[in-house]
Write a structure and sequence with these properties.
single chain; mainly alpha; 65% helix
Length: 122
């Protein structure tokens, strides 16, 4: 025998509403963890509620710090690709940067060549 279908509407009794919210929130978190394991992916979930910090989110500040560091690193790489702040790079890093720029330029030229051929056909 299956579960009965309920109408989706506001639950008037506050304690019943809180219990339902907690159960559904836990179910969503469980599904997110399962997806993480199955797909070998990192996940982020944010559910609003009365309690901002939960025992399950003790590593949240570590994750925020990791994302900030990654963002800073990407900002530095972007500045290097723009030709800014390259005086601090080593010879090996400059060669890697040059290779990356040449690959990007090759892709752009290839794309432009395809666009020109497409325009000539029209």
């Amino acid at each position: 025998m299956g579960r009965g279908k309920i109408e989706i509407k506001r639950i008037e009794n506050s304690s019943n509403r809180q219990v339902t919210y907690s159960k559904r929130r836990n179910g969503i978190i469980k599904k997110a963890k399962e997806i993480t394991v199955l797909c070998d992916a990192k996940h982020y979930h944010r559910l609003s509620g009365k309690r901002l910090w939960d025992a399950k989110h003790e590593n949240l500040s570590n994750e925020v710090d990791r994302v900030k560091k990654e963002n800073d690193s990407l900002q530095i790489k972007l500045r290097h690709l723009k030709g800014e702040d390259i005086t601090s790079l080593t010879h090996r890093e400059l060669i890697a940067l040059e290779d990356a720029l040449e690959q990007g330029l090759t892709c752009v030229r290839h794309q432009q060549g395809g666009s020109k051929i497409q325009a000539q056909r029209e």
